[in-house]
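Example 610.
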Amino acid sequence: MTRRRTSLVLAGGAAGCLALTLGGQAAAAPTAQVHGPKPVTNKLPKVPVMVGGGGAVSTVDAVASQVGIDVLKAGGNAADAAVATAAALGVTEPYSTGIGGGGFFVFYDASTGRVQTIDGRETAPKSFDQNVFREPDGTPMSFTKAVNSGLSVGVPGTPATWALAARKFGTMPFGDLMKPAETIARRGFVVDQTFHDQTVANAARFSAFPETARVFLPGGSAPAVGSVFRNPDMARAYRELRTHGVQSLYDGRLGRAVVAEARDPHTAAGISVPLGQITMADLRDYRALPKAPIHSVYRGLDVYGMPVPSSGGIAVAEILNLLEAFDHRTGAPLKDVSNAQYLHRFSEASALAFADRNRYVGDVPGVPVGELTSQAFANERACLFSPTTALPRPVPFGSPDGSYETCGPTATTSRLPNDGQSTSHLVVTDKWGNAVSYTLTIEQTGGSGITVPGWGFLLNNELTDFDFAPLQPGVPDPNLPASGKRPRSSMSPTVVLDHGHLRLVVGSPGGATIITTVSQVLTEYLDRGLPLVDAIAAPRLSSRNGPEQAEPALLASPDAAVLRSMGHVLVETPEIGAATAIRVLGPDRFEAAAETVRRGGGSAMVVRPR
Ligand code: GLU
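Predicted structure in complex with glutamic acid:
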């Protein structure tokens, strides 16, 4: 990796040159009369696929992708661009990501061939115990009550992740990487349909928190499509991070504001919510943690993902191992079977992997990671598989004990994890061949609904990712709340290498559906031979050991009837995930890809399109 220290010259560079010059299918210009400074928009067109050199960026948002491209152009590497892009997403996608949340950062260093990760997951306060999300009579708290509360707010990990990524992998000063986001927050961006719709969908719960209503429902309603949305308070928060560093959040005035609001949120008259428990001591103790990635081999390629407390890397590895095991059992490789048979195998593999994930994976000591991701374990699990009939759900979890002879089912857990549509995934590659795959979130769309007064960003509700009560009486549950613990995640930022060379980076939002979305994109591309952008666009199926979620296009296809005849229970879900990916075409030549339709379409860019 190149470790030059460069500075982003902001007056004429990066954010400063994000101008209102649009071409092709660029973002819509504001329709309303614009007062105040000119909003920040993208220079490159907003398209779902772009090919070229100099590095590549793919995100859900064109203004954020453009920030990454500008950082790469200014001499930054993939880590620099990823941090600046993530900060920009905090402005333009404030209901999905931002200063008040957490995430998982995967970095591929081309000079060493090493993949490293940062665990930036939120932590529970020290005061937490396993009963914290239960009512006094012992019943689990309603999910909605827990979401819209201070109690669900974990210590934010995102600023610490950015600082660590910039220091460990980047080449530019951290403060410079905050500057484009600050500029976008101050000058504003043009509201698109997705931002408008997300605001409308959250208007009722935002109204419960006057500060959130003031910032995100200006004048009492959602900003109109085509209008300019500015967030001067958030600009102030980014300036604070830029000038005082992230210690302002972990041991300074930004942190004090977060703690005060989480512990006693301002609410509208007549509304009370559960109070938060995080303290300044919890913030001071927070660390973003460098961790070794999960590694598995699929079709001879090295697949790297996120370790515990995310279940993403483990579950994706198990799904892929199971698919290889099904190939061997049937003698028919995935690439040669019908589309319905492909979906059947994918669904069965996902259900089995989720049974194991729910039983064994959480932020606890002794998770049998090596066994869960081993081909031998998958081979044993695959003996439940039938090519003609779906296993009844819930399928039993397996025994990852190192001794693999029988199917060895023990028992089942039945609860389905939540599957929000919040979160954002970004991918970056640079001209040196480094890459980042980074998923970040505030959990639900709109997080806890609580905005930090005067600082313009929403606090996460990540602690609702804990199981409020054991999934099954008598079966250990690794994901119960506990002091200082990180809730289990499904985030699956993924890097694929081919004999030590970068081949693909991919990831998605979507709560627990992230795991199935990433696995589906990988297999649609690697096995089914779809171009990357089509692999992303393909109709999705998410099977997680219960009824299977299917998008309308899949239900409308002939495959749905075949799947139902095999016993699959399909439930319509309008949209699953919002993936982004980049594949390497050759030395300094990339194809960036994003959604064509979901979430209004994503934004794939390269530095030098050709
Ligand atoms: N909290 C979820 C997780 O960590 C992500 C939220 C979402 O994508 O909606 O798995």
